[in-house]
Amino acid sequence: MGSQEEERRELEEGLLQGRGEAGGAADGEVRVWRDESKGIYTGDGSVDINGNPILREGTGGWRACPFILGNECCERLAYYGISTNLVTYLTKKLHQGNVSAARNVTTWQGTCYIAPLIGAVLADSYWGRYWTISVFSTVYFIVSVSFVEVFSSFLFDLLSQMPLILFI
Fold first, then answer.
1. How many CA atoms are closer than 13 Å to the CA of 5, on its beta-carbon side?
2. How far is residue 41's CA from residue 36's CA, in Å, rounded to a whole number?
3. Which of 27, 33, 59, 159 has CB atoms 3.0–4.6 Å from 22's, for a disulfide?
4. Closest C-alpha to 143, from 85, 74, 73
């Protein structure tokens, strides 16, 4: 009777060497991990939540591409839109000093660049890529909408104080 570690090792060796079968299950059935003649499995060692190999037809494709590209576009627009005006907002509206505002902006930027690493760990270890993207997109949307609500009043005040310049 083998341990889970031995089964995992046999599975990995079977996938790397291209064997058709990788060990037997506890109840005596034989699992087919990779069928190279039909190519129905991905063959890269990917397994689902139950430890079974992933079917090739259920992976890949362009189904999620528009969502991911749209999400990245909105995320970049929001990031650069906020970062260009954040120091001004912190110093004028929240009356922070320049040093304090600069520190807060760099902390915010660092958090924005560290967050994908946290997302990668969650996606690879726990939730999977689609759930991770969905959860973080929802959080980012809620935070962005609340920030736009607060920032729009500041922008309106700033624009109302500027002299009106007409270009003819």
1. 0
2. 8
3. 33
4. 74
Helix, strand and coil percent figures for the chain, each rounded to 5: 65, 5, 30
pLDDT at residue 166 is higher than 80: no
- Per-residue pLDDT for 5 more than 80? no
Confidence of residue 110 (pLDDT cuts 50, 70, 90): very high
Q: In the Cβ-directed half-sphere of 7, how many Cα atoms lie within 13 Å?
A: 12
Per the structure block, which two tokens stand in for 88? Answer: 């001004």
121 vs 167: CA distance, rounded Å: 52
> Is the pTM higher than 0.85?
no
Tokens of 58: 């259920």
Residues paired with residue 53 on neighbouring β-strands, in sequence order? 47
User: What is the three-state SS of 41-108?
Assistant: ECCCCCECCCCCECEHHHCCCCCCHHHHHHHHHHHHHHHHHHHHHHHHHHHHHCCCCHHHHHHHHHHH
Place of tokens 């999977």: 128
Ramachandran region of residue 159, left (φ > 0), alpha (ψ -120 to 50) or beta?
alpha
